[in-house]
Design brief:
By secondary structure, the protein is of the alpha+beta class. It has two helices and ten strands, in the order αββββββαββββ. The strands form three sheets. The protein has a five-stranded mixed sheet with strand order 3-6-1-7-8, with no helix packed on it. A three-stranded antiparallel sheet has the order 2-5-4, with no helix packed on it. A two-stranded parallel ribbon has the order 9-10.
Length: 304
């Protein structure tokens, strides 16, 4: 009898444990909390400067609910700095909800961002994030970003999100929900290696600011913005400046009735051969300065 009671007791605790796990899983689904919750950051194997040839140092800020797991030979130092070794990875684990990823890779000093070549966000819960502004700002050597499973449904700010990512050749944003985003200014500024960009899924109905959005993306050869809703946009300043390989694009769907700034909007689009702006409304525009400067190859031009 005693043996049977012990068995029943063990069985009870076993079922109780499974019940608790089930409840925690349901709660996790309700709140959007996923486990594990982390970002993988991989660094270059080419620390070419004398200063960094034996690894480099950076201060780690103390963040509540954040843990850094080192993969490879990188190491913590006694002064709480971190020495990053070539070709190593770091996992950044989060135990609290994150609401802002603005300037996220400034979590280490700027020089470390320069050596990041790959970021994997596929295990990262972004359901509460409202700001992704300047998230990858001037990650000059970043070659690839994995956005699988990333939820951007709460994001309002994407200003400068990929600005200065000069080595990005491909960018898959097909799962981005941008219905609440108000600021896309300089979002792809100086993405010098991007040859094409599929934004067909972008909902821009809430966007107010598009200044410099594609400025300096010198290798962009095609850009389909036929799905863009620009009815709320007030700023298009230098939006396409220095898109040096674009020969034409269709802006016939653009609603510019709210736009105030259009200065240098197309400046130095040196291969642009045709431009039809006959649908543009400019009654509220305060500045058109140098809007069409350095359009050397323009042939067909329907003016506003």
């Amino acid at each position: 009898m005693k043996y049977i009671k012990m068995k029943l007791k063990k069985l009870f605790f076993c079922f109780y444990f499974l019940f608790l796990m089930f409840i925690m899983d349901i709660k996790g689904q309700e709140t959007g909390v996923l486990t594990p919750n982390y970002i993988i950051v991989k660094y270059s194997n080419d620390f070419s400067t004398q200063e960094y040839e034996n690894g480099f140092y950076s201060n780690i800020p103390s963040r509540k609910g954040v843990n850094y797991i080192i993969k490879g030979n990188s190491r913590y130092n006694s002064d709480e700095s971190l020495t990053i070794e070539p070709n190593d990875s770091i996992e950044i684990h989060f135990y609290n909800d994150i609401t802002s990823l603005e300037h996220f890779f400034d979590w280490l000093e700027d020089d470390i961002c320069e050596f990041i070549i790959y970021v994997d966000l596929s295990h990262f819960n972004t359901i509460s994030v409202t700001n992704m502004g300047s998230m990858f700002l001037y990650c000059n050597n970043l070659e690839k970003i994995n956005f699988t499973n990333v939820n951007t449904s709460s994001v309002i700010g994407m200003f400068g999100m990929f600005a200065g990512c000069k080595k990005l050749e491909l960018l898959d944003l097909s799962n981005f929900n941008t219905s609440l985003v108000e600021n896309m200014g300089y979002m792809f500024f100086e993405c010098n290696n991007l040859e094409s960009l599929d934004l067909s899924n972008f909902n821009t109905s809430s966007v107010i600011n598009m200044d410099g959005m594609f400025s300096g993306s010198e290798k962009l050869e095609s850009l389909d913005l036929s799905t863009f809703n620009t009815s709320s946009v007030t700023n298009m300043y230098c939006m396409f400046s220095r898109c040096e390989k674009l020969e034409s694009f269709d802006l016939s769907n653009f609603n510019t009735s709210s736009v105030i700034k259009m200065g240098i909007m197309f400046i130095s689009c040196i291969k642009l051969k045709s431009l039809d702006l006959s649908n543009f409304q400019t009654k509220n525009v305060e500045s058109l300065n140098f809007m069409f400067e350095n359009l050397y190859r323009i042939g067909i031009f329907r003016y506003i």
